[in-house]
Amino acid sequence: MMLHFVMTVNAETPETLLESYVSFSRHLKCPEYAVTNTLNSKDLNTDEKITNLKSLISRKIEVYTSWLMVVDNVTNISGVHGHLPKHGSEQWARGQLLITTQDTASIPLTSSFHQHISLSKGMEPRDAGSLLAVLSGIDDSKMEQEVAQALDYQPLALASAATHVRQVRQNKVSSNFGWDDYLKKLEKGQRGSTETILSETNPSYPKSMNAGNNISR
Q1: For the whole model, what pTM was predicted?
Q2: Spatial separation of the C-alpha atoms in residues 191 and 112, rounded to whole Å
């Protein structure tokens, strides 16, 4: 069985990042006593609590075939870098980070491990299609490009769309739901209803994907 997930963490402040990691830990069903003890500890500061929770999460992450962590509202990349999955770690090797920030001065140069995407331009078509395929579990390059174009190649909107399709398909009644059906929803003006799943499963993200993209442009 192939397991995938998308998780959004709010990295605006250490406190919001801690709150997100608590939620993340619980979604992955880390031991509740360990999460609660870490959160309520008077001997640990916020950074140490985040480090402990990250360690708990890393033990669960290996069972997933692929994952995407959206690190949102980053105001200082260097300030949160230590709390994010490390390149080269076997436990975190199967996933990707999508970091949204206006701290352009701290963005690393493009390399085989980093790619800078301007939200005003969106993702490259091939990368957008690949993101949809990985997160949705559907491999249909033609439809992926149609969906990506409809969503202006915006990464947050793409992640939301793929999450919606994957979740709908988990129900036996709608297991054949595909990109054609998703596009029909868009044509009917129902995009908002497709964005609720990611927002509800990621309580650290306070806005819909659509609103987030509009703000970023």
Answers
A1: 0.57
A2: 33
